[in-house]
Design goal:
The chain is of the alpha+beta class. It has a domain of about 90 residues. Helix content is about 40%, strand content about 15%. It has twelve helices and ten strands. An eight-stranded antiparallel β-sheet has the order 6-5-4-3-7-8-9-10. It has a two-stranded antiparallel sheet with strand order 1-2. The longest helix is centred in the first third of the chain and has 17 residues. The radius of gyration is 21 Å and the shape is globular.
Length: about 350
């Protein structure tokens, strides 16, 4: 019998029952401001619709697309970017999704006084990607540093220790992700220190982490180093689960999403999504939580205010080996959405016969 308190996370995207409402709440928050495009930038079409005058956008300052209280912050952060990325920044300011997302990120950064830290992150990003795109530029702004359970403190990811450590990470995106994993493991220092900590500030003070805060730390370091394309992985096991960090990185065969675990021993290579889960995940040896049956592995990316589900790999039942993939229009170069039977899983099943 289906139990609504236990079974939602048996299925890919079930985690959204917890995190999805945050994105809706941000829409409500901004709607309360009654904020819209300035009249001078709009025109009425014959069908009664109102459209943006693109010529006016090109001619006017992009800051006008921000609420008046955020225009100074918008301009301050814009100054640290290359001319090419300034154009990307301006384009994001009047793009349908990116504009609302940008308002949210700037509002939170300005309220908790981390605009200077965010400027440092943007400088690092600009050094790595002097000619970028809106999706990548927006990704490094996300206040929920590295996990669905992050961001209780809006400026948590900008802890001075994490900002300093991120500045020392270099090399390729994958090397930075591995470096973030090594740092997090060093803070953790063994499974006897596994404990729930609600914020990164508290985790660094106590030197105690659980899988959620470890993933948050890896993602915060990665983004603080100016790297974009971050994801998070969640194992779904009813009312329990496990979390790991992931990022899209360039590899010889093209872009790939790779996974690291901040609580495990220092990794020399990152695992490939979803290949790492085609035989089912194995609970870490030292893990002290409930080791329940894992039903699916889910991949999440940033949403408007919280993470959103993008892929799910089914591990149990008649549909085991099936990969489900959502459409995420604001993330470029995503594979087509749909339901796919994993060729990897099929080949392993045949080999086992």
């Amino acid at each position: 019998k289906y139990d609504a308190t236990l079974h939602p996370t048996f299925f890919p995207a079930g985690r959204l029952t917890l995190n999805g409402p945050h994105n809706l709440m941000e829409v409500e928050h901004q709607a309360e401001w009654l904020f819209r495009a300035p009249d001078a930038y709009l025109e009425s079409a014959t069908d009664g619709a109102v459209r943006v005058k693109r010529a006016a956008v090109a001619a006017g300052p992009a800051a006008v697309w921000m609420p008046p209280t955020l225009r100074e912050t918008f301009a301050r952060l814009r100054e640290v970017l290359s001319s090419a990325n300034q154009a990307v920044w301006d384009r994001a300011a009047h793009s349908p999704f990116h504009r609302t997302y940008l308002v949210n990120m700037l509002y939170r950064a300005s309220r908790v006084g981390v605009v200077d830290e965010l400027a440092v992150v943007l400088k690092r990003f600009d050094h790595v990607r002097p000619q970028s795109d809106p999706a990548a530029l927006m990704d490094v702004l996300f206040y929920r540093g590295g996990d669905l359970g992050a961001g209780i403190l809006w400026g948590d990811r900008f802890h001075p220790h994490l900002m300093s450590a991120a500045g020392a990470l270099g090399g390729s995106d994958e090397q930075v992700l591995l470096g973030a994993q090594h740092f997090t493991r060093a803070v953790f220092d063994g499974w006897e220190h596994y404990a729930k900590t609600p914020t990164l500030h508290e985790a660094l003070l106590q030197k105690r982490l659980d899988c959620i805060r470890a993933t948050d730390m890896v993602g915060s370091l990665y983004r603080n180093a100016g790297r974009a394309g971050y994801y998070t992985v969640r194992w779904s096991a009813g009312m329990t689960g496990y979390t790991a960090a992931a990022a899209e990185v360039p590899r010889s065969g093209g872009p790939a999403i790779v996974v690291v675990d901040g609580l495990e021993s220092p990794q020399t290579t990152a695992e490939l999504w979803p290949h790492a889960y085609t035989r089912g995940p194995t609970w870490p040896t030292g893990y002290t939580g409930i080791k329940a049956t894992v039903h699916s592995a889910e991949l999440f990316t940033r949403g408007l205010d919280d993470y959103v589900w993008v892929e799910g790999y089914v591990l149990r039942g008649p549909h085991a080996g099936t990969l489900l993939r959502a459409s995420v229009p604001y993330v470029p170069n995503r594979p087509p959405p749909g339901t796919f039977r994993s060729q990897i899983a099929q080949s392993r099943l045949l080999a086992a016969r």
